[in-house]
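Why this split exists: single-chain examples teach little about how molecules sit against one another. For that reason, every record in the complexes split bundles all components of an assembly together and asks for one structure covering all of them. Below is a record exactly as it appears in the raw files.
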Amino acid sequence: MRFSFLKTLTSLMRKDDSILVLTADMGYGVFEELEKEFPKRFLNTGITEQSTVSMAAGLALSGYKVFFYAQAPFATMRCFEQIRLDAAYNHTNIKIIGTASGFSSNQLGTSHFSVEDIALMRLLPNLTIFTPGDPFEAEWATKMAYKTNGPVYLRLSKSGSAVIHKQSISIPIGKGIKICDGNQLTIFVSGNLLPMAQNIVSSLNKKNIQACLISMPTIKPLDKEIIVSEAKRTKTIFTLEDHSIIGGLGSAVAEVLAELGEKVNFLRLGVPDKFTHIVGSEKHLLASNGLSEKKIIKNILNKLSQK
Amino acid sequence: MSKDSSYTSLIVQAKGIRKTILSMIVKAHASHIGSAYSIVEILLYLYNEELKINPKNPLDPGRDRFILSKGWGVSALYAILAEKGFFKKELLDSYCLNGSKLVGTATRNGIPGIEATTGSIGHGLPIGVGIALAGKIQQKNYRVFVLVGDGECNEGSTWEAILQAGQYKLDNLVIIVDYNKWQAYGRIKDVLNLEPFAKKWRSFNWSVKVINGHNFNEISQACSSIPFKKNQPNVIIAHTIKGKGISALEDDNEWHYRTPTDEIIKIAEKELNI
């Protein structure tokens, strides 16, 4: 996912001199080639997320499109107020690239986990949020971030290299992508768990349960239409994400469903409202939060039996 | 201390601006008069003598930028912007009242002449660093002036930006510190002492001038030598008096919060020749 972002950004920078890349001392082993090609348009501002977002606003107010790269928890939480005022309120052309989101930094603990970032970013008016789930979605999201006139949060994972889509995507911002169809239930997934969602749908198919899978690479603006139409069609909705069940895709979908007033069987599959005190592989950390394929399938079957 | 004799017109204007600020704040039953009064001379000098700006074309790409980082002193800035013709003076009557866009902290909401949304401290300086850096990259001649509060120099983001401006050799960036010795809860030296202040800036690779921020000659002398040193950002540490201009308000932090009373207004009438 990161490689796809980098490749797309590099090709955009070749076409548009007004793109600058700022990093808060992150991207070792990532940006070297880009820095070599664009030495004057790449700036390591030091470990200074707060002043860097404000500085990015100053650069954006002077005509630049600024990509600000840092690890997701630091890119969003350390400088939240700078994002609120200098990026969102001022509607500046700042693209916040939060890398290593979710449990990507699997051995580094809560300081480096990022399962609250989407909730924070969703709060802010003017901000567009992309949560790509495979390299093609990352390519698309990077292009859309560039095209968006205003502030963007683009959430990347360290992993996420499994390819789901067959080719480059061309959809408008704020649209879900139907990966496969099914009429018994609908799973909305965003980000890194897209490959897992696909496996889950295959397993359900083997049990003769026809599931529809929809990837949501844009969290804001949200594709409300597709949520409403699926709620009316399958009447059974699940959300899946490597983010807290509070404030992310699950909450966003819940808000739409609650106001819809239809009777819908609904479950959020995400990180429960508790801190994770352990380390381990990303898969292990997800599983310890109830996000293993086996556990998710069990939860889906339970929910279906309540119908 | 040098005499202020050659700036008689600005000295008269300073009284007028303080009158305007007083009436805005009293009408709105607003706060922060002390913060506005300590920066009147600095703003008047910049807007009359120093900044290359055009009120008729406030977004001219070649303009000097001025950012009021201590955004809560904004009543002084509004009064001067109106005086310079950025917008109509009648607008000042709406300051902080229902529906007004003249917000009590500098807010970039379409009011001509307001370059950045501040008020939350520690934003204006790094925004200024970004604009100055853009000027360097684009080889433009504009300069960026940022007026920061002394209390604002508590914030980490301010010091991040001070490091960055030194690193990027932004000699087109001029910081003026309104050193009125008060922050929200008390004396600077008692809360978080900034001294040795000039030495701190120098050690971050800035060029420093220390002046009396109410003396036009001293402000002028400092500004006339910008950049103080090639490849170094500039800081003017301006010793000021909070509430300067009305004796009953001076050096008293109560007027960071309170609206001037009838008693104060009477004193002001005498001292500002109303």
